[in-house]
Amino acid sequence: MITGIRTLRGRTLRNRTLRDRTLRGRRAVPVAAAALLTLAACGGGGSAPPDPARSLGPTARSATTGVDDATGSKASSQCAAAVRTLRLYTIENLENVARSGKAAMEKAHPGLTVELVTSATSYAGLAQQLSTDSAAGQRADVAVAGLDLLPEFAGRLGAQELSPRLLRASYDQRLVGLGQIGGRQIGIPQQVSTLALVYNLDVLEKAGVDPGSLTTTAGVLAAAEKIATSGQDVQPIDIPTGQQFGQWVLNTLASSKGAPIQGDDGRPRLDTPQAREAAQFLAKAATYGPQSTDPTNQGLLRFGYRKETAMTVMTVESLAGGLKFIQDQGARGFRAGAVPFPTLPAGRQAPVARGNALTVLATDRCQREMATELVVSLLAPDVVAASTESLSYLPVDSDALARLAPFYRQYPQLAAFNELAPSLVAPPSWAGARGPELPQAINNQVVRIMGGADIDQTLAAAQAEAESFNQ
């Protein structure tokens, strides 16, 4: 998520920085050619462990935005004159980008007031706030939605269909499917991420492991065995389970064999052969040593600072920050590589995405036109580029990608992930009153499997629990 982007149609407003405290297809991606970055440098590490979260924060850079396309992307002059107020809902960590949108719209339309509601601390909390405010008669025009919550926005919250044809030609149309519910375009993906396997190349080379072998779970386990017997006193692999990583990894692996943990009918499918094969990998990986809970304060610290683990899992949006964190260790640094998370054997890349989308909730025609203009302005190429430099989400705009050439020269490991766009799979979105609880419940079952619980029994229990929650 990006913050601190200041924007204005057709002009540049400088000196606003990006700030964010959040750490927040089927076409196979060749991993053998994944780029590597030598991160060792001069300097020392100090006696106290550094805070990895600081490296995952954004880089300071100003950004410009504006609606460039004359057709379809601007509100009509009639509506621009008629609308005096727009209401924008987002989470608190996106408050600064919301203020940027407010400044842009109010400058472009004198007399317009953009009211911001930024008190929610999570996407789930924001959805609940929208529901409560709607019941109290408070109108919302635009809101940010977690990709997994889009069905709720399409149904109970009344999000309007938003045609991708209203976007700039440079918007990556391969991503719009992540914002579709029942064939309707409910949201426009703004920030999109997936999972990465990150490795210490120095350790792999000493163990005789070719990074090109890490395309499948079989290759990863073979590499882990070589590392375990190489005499380096390093844990071969760490798969953090916090922040619901456990169920995300399980789903990504099952998806690689064509069976994500949620079927097209919306029902759970946690007891499939694909889920079982994924669970078997996770159980085996866990036998190589203790697996972290928190991906940052434990996983990244163990991998990037203490050098206790040879391979770990990170999100793409935190990858550039994680590489910087390793680089900042100075002489303690090492060569690090990153590849898209491996598939099950004979599988293909179909990674499960996570992130957010911009939605329009306004129902009045003119309110909707103005709300759409705000959405389009927040997807301007320079905003997307600044976002990617801040937190390394997949860029959703091709012009932004072109502007990011220096960034990808700095972090060449990231380039392979941009090839995943056509193969990304939407995250599960569970129905039912207890549906929002289900990701964590599934994650808890994955943790049990990694702790040694019987796989078949645990997956059966997870399926039964999911079915009861999803009603």
From TrEMBL:
It holds the Pfam family SBP_bac_1. This is Multiple sugar transport system substrate-binding protein. Coiled coil: none annotated. Keywords: Sugar transport, Transport. Residues 46-72 are annotated as: Disordered. It comes from Parafrankia irregularis.
